[in-house]
Amino acid sequence: MWFKNLLIYQFTKPFTLTLDELSDKLAERPFVPCNSQDPSSRGWVAPIGDENSPLVHSANGYGMLCLQRQDKVLPAAVVNEFLDDKIADIRDREERIPGRKERVELKEQITFELLPRAFTRSSRLYAYLAPREGLLVINASAYGRAEELMNLLRETLGTLPVLPVKSAEEPSAAMTRWLLNGPTPNNFEIGGECELRDSRDESSVIRCKNQALDSEEIRNHLEAGMRVTRLALKWQGDIEFLVDEKLAIKRLRFGDLILDKISDIHTESAVEQFDADFAIMTGEFAQLIPALVDAFGGPSDPTTT
What is the pTM of this model? Predict the structure, then answer.
């Protein structure tokens, strides 16, 4: 349940539903497994994994929700093999070769016939709402996956006025300045990984890992016009992550101080453990997210972007 990636969205209008009301709304779009002819299915499930638990797990004013996705797995090679056999049969029986339009129709028919026999693959995507801060935080590394959750949430609620969180200063410019001239913002340390891109040629990329980023080589690249688009940071000595030019946080790792908080809590059930983990995690993020945005000059006005 501990998030490994953060895509952070800011509400442009106050989120006025209570978490209980949100849970009731999600119950109108529960996850239902694919039937024999459905290629995929999406819906809400209880984050804790117990079907009797609420669809919004709440702690300290934060509410976690979970999108479950199920897809039929039908390899293209299998469909194409059946299609080839079908075309060969038509050629032998009717002494003709189907045209492009007919091939497309045959492929759709074969897919429809094979779907009931296809395997299914399921996955879950977690997010949490922070109504006080006006944030939606999604545990996804790709914006496409985040959009999938937001689209279903928008359909469920009828509206979802959010935009990606933005800072007053362009993150790439700030990170480039930190490596060139410093200083690093308070409570942040620069790690040993970065990505550089050429301002004049976006296809020109240098990725550095396990290197001293204050080296002369890195400085030469930056002075030649390259800019930092991804940078490893450590916050308060206990949370390590990569942040990119869109303020996406990836590859989160929690240090001993946070892990000790977890081990100090004695729980008797999976529910209690989930609740404790969620409370600690969101408590840390409640400090990290604004600190990171402040490091880039503070938040920009989401209603003007």
Answer: 0.85
